[in-house]
Design a protein that fits this description.
mainly alpha, two-stranded antiparallel ribbon, 6 helices, 2 strands
Length: 167
């Protein structure tokens, strides 16, 4: 239980302010009858040291993460820091072409995906030229037809990947 730092009375009987001084002692300090106590910075020093340790751990953790920039090893491909294609991408492409619109919420509902994964799949489809760019709250425009999707599937059987948008 906090006590007044000057008179030592428990806070149960008197209200103590944020400096740890009761009202009666604060009045005496204001009138100049007693001098204010020295500030105790030992607790603050401990907090500063804990914050410094956490900060250094976070910096070490961030420095240890791999860079996630746009990497182009093949001039016809775009990879956003991920070398592996999402296994739900073909199903998402079929769904988007069949419905004629591309939204993250559509992928979330129909394919039972989380938001982050659905958004990455939409970004990947944009990079491959399957859907158009972001247009605010409107669904993205689907840039390929069902016929083109069938052709892509046939080509996929030949080279095992969907074609990517050339830049």
């Amino acid at each position: 239980m906090p006590k007044c730092r000057i008179c030592g009375v428990n806070a149960l009987f008197l209200k103590v302010n944020e400096d740890g001084i009761c009202k009666s002692c604060a009045k005496k300090i204001a009138k100049g009858k007693i001098s204010p106590p020295e500030k105790d910075f030992s607790e603050l020093q401990e907090d500063v040291e804990r914050i410094r340790i956490v900060k250094n751990r976070l910096i070490d953790a961030v420095n240890g993460l791999p860079e996630r920039s746009c990497v182009r090893s093949d001039p016809n491909s775009v990879s956003f820091g991920f070398d592996v294609e999402d296994e739900m991408l073909p199903a998402a492409i079929e769904l988007v072409v069949e419905t004629g619109q591309a939204t993250t919420s559509l992928l979330q509902r129909k394919l039972k995906l989380g938001y982050a994964r659905a958004a990455r799949i939409i970004d990947e489809m944009e990079a491959r030229g399957i859907v158009g760019p972001f247009e605010g709250s409107k669904p993205r425009q689907v840039l390929i037809s069902r016929h083109q999707l069938i052709e892509m599937k046939m080509q996929m059987d030949a080279d095992q990947t969907f074609p990517r948008k050339r830049r």
